[in-house]
Amino acid sequence: MMFEAIEYIVHSIDGDYAHLSRVDKPDEELKLVARALLPDMIREGSHLQYEMLQYTLLD
Fold first, then answer.
1. What is the pTM of this model?
2. How much is the mean pLDDT over the chain?
3. Cβ–Cβ contacts within 10 Å for residue 14, how many?
4. Which residues contact 27 (CB under 8 A, 6 or more apart)?
5. Distance between CA atoms of residues 30 and 4, nearest Å
6. Is the distance from CB of 31 to CB of 22 less than 8 angstroms?
7. Could you count the other beta carbons within 10 Å of the beta carbon of residue 42?
8. How far is the C-alpha of 21 from the C-alpha of 24, rounded, in Å?
9. What is the pLDDT of residue 59?
10. Half-sphere exposure of residue 30, counting CA atoms within 13 Å on the CB side?
11. Is 16 left (phi over 0), alpha (psi -120 to 50) or beta?
12. Distance CA 41, CA 5 (A)
């Protein structure tokens, strides 16, 4: 099974959830992710990478 790295931008934060947009497919529907699964230091505009079932803060 291949796990491709996907890059996201944090579009908005809504309480315990964050809305993410894919960098390579900006017109795609936003992905809703529980903040507990994301790095602690995220903010709107943060750049994330999703790989091997983990999110990593890139900037």
1. 0.90
2. 94
3. 10
4. none
5. 19
6. yes
7. 18
8. 9
9. 77
10. 12
11. alpha
12. 20
Cβ(32)–Cβ(15) under 8 Å?
no
Q: Please determine, for residue 43, whether its predicted confidence score (pLDDT) is greater than 70.
A: yes
- The pair of structure tokens assigned to 48 is 């994330």
CA–chain centroid gap for 34, Å, is: 10
Angle 27-46-38 (CA atoms, 0-180°, nearest 5)? Answer: 95
Residue 19 and residue 36 in contact, taking contact as beta carbons nearer than 8 Å: no
Answer yes or no: are the C-beta atoms of 52 and 1 closer than 8 Å.
no
Q: Both tokens of residue 12?
A: 């908005």
Residue of 29, 21, 15 lying closest to 45 (CA atoms)? 21
